[in-house]
Amino acid sequence: KDTFGRWNDPIPEKVPKIEHPISREFFDAHEMVASPNPVPTETTIAIHTLDKTPLLPPHGKKMVSKELGSYAGFAGRPETGGGYYKRSGDRRRYLLTDGRVLGGYSTAQADVWHNFLQLQWHVAVLVALARRTDRIFILPRVASDYHVLFLWSNLDMESLEKLVDIRETNFPSNKKAWYSPTEPFKSSARVALYPGSDGKVENGRLFVH
User: Fold this and answer.
1) Torsions phi, psi of 161, nearest 5?
2) By C-alpha distance, which of 201, 142, 150 is closest to 36?
3) CA 61 to CA 66: how far, in whole Å?
4) In a 10 Å sphere around its CB, with 0-12 CB exposed, 13-18 middle and 19+ buried, how is residue 76 labelled?
5) Cα 195 vs. chain centroid, distance in angstroms?
6) Non-local CB neighbours of 204 within 8 Å, separated by 6+ positions
7) What's the pLDDT score for residue 128?
8) Bridge partners (DSSP) listed for residue 106
9) What are phi and psi of 56, to 5 degrees?
């Protein structure tokens, strides 16, 4: 019986010499970080992103890697003006929330207290603007009175990415994505989408860059 490919394959008559033998070593848990929610430290030399509900597919691991700044990205095609981090010309335009809390959206405000329908409208408006202006949408951080979450952990990303290009929340903090060694963006404009309750634009509750 042919046993090729099984554990009890016949030993070849001539065994090749291993040029680069496998070595093994024990690493500290902070040196080789492996977790669904990895916490890198100053001693970390490698990150192995794991996954759990609701992000069981590889997409979840990729998003965690992006937020940690450990995503390698891709080279991209010449006609698209670069890759994931390096873009040029009109392909380097973004849209992001300029919020009062952590630069994102908060559900712990008097007029939107725990109003997640309002959050859905907020995201829908931003996606529509990004699509209309042909900009890459940077996902906002969402804060409440008891936790902070990334929008992609509760959003239908498959449907969203059919509408606009997106980037992770920590994208502007990753120097690989910066316009230059010292500037994250070539230029930026702050816009109020609607005025505050007093009618003044400068007191608006929803700003974008």
Assistant:
1) -75, -10
2) 150
3) 9
4) middle
5) 30
6) 192, 193, 194, 195, 196
7) 92
8) 143
9) -75, -35
Rounded to an integer, what distance in angstroms lies between the CA atom of residue 72 and that of residue 84? 9
Task: Write down the pLDDT at residue 62.
Answer: 81
Of 42, 40, 60, residue with least CA distance to 50: 60
Three-state SS at 95: strand
**pLDDT, tens only, 45-84:** 888 887 666 556 677 778 888 888 888 777 666 665 567 7
For residue 58, what is the DSSP state? Answer: H
User: CA 118, CA 108: separation in Å to the nearest integer?
Assistant: 12
Find tokens 């991209």 and name the residue: 76
The amino acid at residue 72 is A
Instruction: Give the integer Cα–Cα distance in Å for 106 and 127.
Output: 18
Amino acid identity, position 169: T
Read off the pTM. Answer: 0.72
Half-sphere exposure (CA, 13 Å, Cβ side) for 187?
3
Q: What is the mean pLDDT of the chain?
A: 77
Torsion of the alpha carbons at 21, 24, 30 and 35, rounded to the nearest 10 = 90
Give the model's confidence band at 1: pLDDT under 50 very low, under 70 low, under 90 confident, else very high: very low
End-to-end Cα spacing for the chain: 69
Q: Which of 169, 161, 162 is nearest to 138 (CA)?
A: 169
- Helices and strands (DSSP H and E) totals, the chain: 3, 10
pLDDT in tens, 3-45: 445 556 666 777 778 788 777 778 888 888 887 778 888 888 8
Using CA atoms, how far apart are residues 109 and 145, in angstroms rounded to an integer? Answer: 9
